[in-house]
Amino acid sequence: MTFRLIGHDCPTGEYPSPVVPVGMVDEHLVVSFRTSVGVEFETVEDNVLFVRHDQDLGNRLKAFDSPLNRLM
Q1: What is the distance between the alpha carbons of residues 1 and 68, in angstroms, rounded to a whole number?
Q2: Is the peptide bond before 16 cis (omega within 30 degrees of 0)?
Q3: For 15, which DSSP code?
Q4: Which residues contact 60 (CB under 8 A, 6 or more apart)?
Q5: pLDDT of residue 68
Q6: What average pLDDT does range 12-26 have in this prediction?
Q7: What is this structure's pTM?
Q8: pLDDT bucket at 67, cuts 50 / 70 / 90
Q9: What is the separation, in whole angstroms, between the first and last Cα of the chain?
Q10: Residue 5: its H or E element
């Protein structure tokens, strides 16, 4: 299972703030959550609102690894 980061969601609506990674797993739109046992992915509707990363930011975050990295 490979997670491809495409954006993020800011639950508080304010920055600076920790954000929730949004990406694709097996052609499904998912959000990534850290838990006490690792990382879990939850499928979300295709029409969910989130900040989609532009190509420049996507390239800079290409090495994002959801089990190892966090977005803040």
Answers
A1: 15
A2: yes
A3: S
A4: none
A5: 79
A6: 91
A7: 0.85
A8: confident
A9: 24
A10: strand 4-9
Q: Mapped to the 3 state alphabet, what secondary structure does the chain carry?
A: CCCEEEEEECCCCCCCCCCEEEEEECCEEEEEEEECCEEEEEECCCCCCCEECCHHHHHHCCCCCCCCCCCC
pLDDT, residue 72, reads: 61
Cα separation, 64 vs 52, whole angstroms: 15
What is the Cα–Cα distance from 24 to 13, expressed in whole angstroms?
A: 22
**The pair of three-digit structure tokens given for residue 18, joined into one six-digit string:** 């920790």
Confidence of residue 28 (pLDDT cuts 50, 70, 90): very high
**Which amino acid type is present at position 39?**
V
* H-only helix segments in 1-72: 55-60
Taking the CA of residue 52 as centre, how many other CA atoms within 13 Å lie in the half-sphere pointing to its CB? Answer: 8
Amino acid at residue number 30: V
